[in-house]
Amino acid sequence: MDYSIETAPLEKLQYDCIIVGVYQDKQLSPSASALNNSVSGLIEKVVNRGDISGKNGETVLINVIPGSDIERILLVGLGENVPLSGKNYRKALSAAINNLKKPQIKSIVCTLAECAVETYDRQWKTRQIAEVFGDAVYQFTACKSDKEIESKIQKIGITAPENELAAAEAGLIQGKAIAEGVDLTKYLGDLPGNICTPTFLAEQAVELGKKYDKLAVKILEESDMEALGMGSFLSVSRGSRQPAKLITLNYQGGEKNSKPIVLIGKGLTFDAGGISLKPAAGMGDMKYDMGGSASVIGVIKALALRNAKVNVVGIVGLVENMPGGNAQRPGDVVRTMSGQTVEVLNTDAEGRLVLCDCVTYLQQNFKPACIVDIATLTGAISISLGNTYAGCYANDDELAHKLIAASLKTNEKLWRMPLHPDYNDMLKSTVADIANIGSEKGLAGSSTAAHFIGRFINTGVKWAHLDIAGVAYDKKGTNPICPKGAVGFGVRLLNQFVKDNY
Ligand code: BES
Ligand code: ZN
Ligand code: ZN
Q: Taking a C-beta distance cutoff of 8 angstroms, is the pair 309, 325 a contact?
């Protein structure tokens, strides 16, 4: 996607559609009013005869403009003629973009950053246009033939007056960074498991590393993991023909000696459950089981794009969980890199087996300011929180509060969930140091999973765990901004968390 700031008068711009606003009292936005003069009062006519009432989110597309070089004008209702709430501003933007998803429209220019929005400035308003439009025009087309492609928008312009150019450009850098990070996360999530293998994801990470000077990417192969003693991680991979990979994305935008924030992603490129095979219904969704990894990769891309002045390390454990003659058996005991032994009572509780070795690896190689892991870890989290909130576990209140503050700003919702010694007790094993599932089926499944990871966090290290199994992908398609499929959860949230605190 090509994004640009436009300062020239509207009638001089070459776009397939110009987006302008109308209020409920029939007042035209400044751009609508200017444009109205260059199209002989056409906009006023459409408004006065009641084709659009100006209610927030209502739209009318004027698609033929006689005697003008302007191709199309989209009128968007803004609501009452007062400063809009941030929410209504985003609602108007999403209504606009959703009306322009037609293959003949390839470029659009939006003037709505001129509207007054409560407490927000030009920078924020510009950033929202890039974010909302980027989210809405995303389509997973990699596996479709050309004729089925709905939107072909490739160019998005955002207008700004000369005297606010700097603010608009700053907003665009932020918005574009997030839009591109989210786009990558969604694309990787939507790709099917036969294409998006650990090797494929590793290649994507290497490509990112080549693009950005401050980003160093390192790949551990199975033989390296073997040498490091990652018996738990590797046990998950045994049933698969695909070799597992552990990738470190080291983004050094900050001072050399400042401690990095470490983000760890669960990267099951497909989770069949292993010998504890999942039921057939819905198993296809398990291509999304690398959603946490995709979010880590996407947020690192966003940080690099906006040239963030921080050190952030991303660690993603990439592996496929399959049944097979060589797969691990329920009841097997594996040795983790930390030395603790694990009794694998259910091979479908594999994410934690991967994450625990990632956690040990990172603590041996970095001195983290904090660790945040993000994982489609348990079905149980959606029993608690549905598709609305991701679960947030943390061993440090301040860290939890910072994450929740970022969550409120970005509308990627987090709900704090409890850690408690009782849950730890439920992980007792009769033959090993710890079992990989709780002793009581159906009880506190997300909390016991969180505690399992917690058992590998060194004393004094601040750690949070985000269980995104209920929010990483959308099956219903009810979100007006984002089409169904992978939603890129975590990119905005973690970007905001990094931006506000480090
Ligand atoms: N990948 C799944 C969790 C999941 C479920 C993600 C639904 C997205 C949607 C995870 O590996 C898993 O299978 N967890 C088991 C754990 C159980 C065996 C203790 C679960 O949630 O059923
Ligand atoms: Zn599983
Ligand atoms: Zn899984």
A: no
